Structures are given as C-alpha cells and as structure tokens.
Amino acid sequence: MTTSREPLTDAQRRIYAAIAAIPPGRVASYGAIAARAGLPGRARLVGRLLGDVPQGMDLPWFRVLRASGHIAMAPGSRGFREQARRLKAEGVEVLNGRVPLSRFGLDADIDHALWGMPGS
Fold first, then answer.
1. What local confidence, expressed as pLDDT, does residue 46 receive?
2. What is the rounded CA–CA span in Å between residue 37 and residue 23?
3. pLDDT at residue 6 in the model
4. How much is the pLDDT for 106?
5. DSSP-assigned beta bridge partners for residue 54
6. What's the rounded Cα separation, in Å, for the pair 27 and 19?
7. Of 50, 55, 67, 91, which has the most beta carbons under 10 Å away?
8. Contact at 8 Å (CB) between 54 and 48?
9. Which residues pair with 98 in a beta bridge?
10. Taking the model in full, what pTM does it have?
11. How far apart are CA 58 and CA 104, in angstroms?
12. What is the spatial distance between Cα 70 and Cα 105, in angstroms, rounded to a whole number?
C-alpha cells in the first residue's frame, strides 16, 4: 500500500471504482477492469495500481484475475493461498489456481442469456 497523500488521477479513480464494483461471488480480469474504466488495453496499469492501493482504501483485490481466469500470484505463495481462500469463501470455484470465467466472471449471466453458454 502506498502512503502518498497525492490526489488520485482520473484513471486511478476509474480503475479503483471498477474494482470496487465487482460484486461478491464474481471475478473480473485485469483487462476487463481496464475496459470498464474506459482504458482498454491497460491491463498492466490495473495490476500496477492494485499493488499500490492508497492506505485506507479497501478493495476486493482478490476478485481480479488473469484473462485466463488464473490467479496471477505464484502458485503456493501466501498471496496465492489468500486469494484462493477469499474467493472460495464467496462461493467462487477455484481449481488448480483457476476460476471458470464463464460461470463466475462479471458477464457470465449476460453471456449465458444471450448465447446459452453452458458453465464450464
């Protein structure tokens, strides 16, 4: 966490707001968060900002994953275990460090309604 008291930029505010808006039991990729914040193609910025969250800001960081649905931290690391534990506590399926985005992603219900995609 950062201890800087500098005001957030517009991009930071939008990214943090997009992360904060992920509801319990759902996940989103770094790229999806960037797109929802109006910054398509800026997935790495999302990752960088998650590592530099202002002190006192409580974000559901654990709901953000790689585009493949994998947890981005090293398998077996403390952060990896904590992220998997928090996701499972919300009812999100985590198998071998991966979440099926078709079932738990932010747009899973929309995709299913539009295309009839079965959960995987």
1. 98
2. 16
3. 79
4. 86
5. 2
6. 9
7. 50
8. no
9. 70, 95
10. 0.84
11. 22
12. 12
The residue written with tokens 């398509």 in the block is: 40
Helices (H), the chain: 10-20, 30-36, 43-50, 78-89, 101-104, 108-115
State the pLDDT at residue 37: 96
| Residues constituting the chain | 120
Residue 50 contacts residue 68 (beta carbons within 8 Å): no
**83 is written with which tokens?**
């992220």
Tokens encoding 65: 């994953």
Q: What is the pLDDT of residue 120?
A: 40
CA distance 30 to 53: 15
Q: Do β-strands 28-29 and 64-65 pair in parallel, antiparallel, or remain unpaired?
A: parallel
> Which whole-number Å values give the CA distances from 88 to 1, 17, 25, 48, in the listed order?
24, 23, 9, 24
Show the tokens assigned to 63.
């709901």
The parts of the chain modelled with pLDDT lower than 50 are 1-3, 119-120
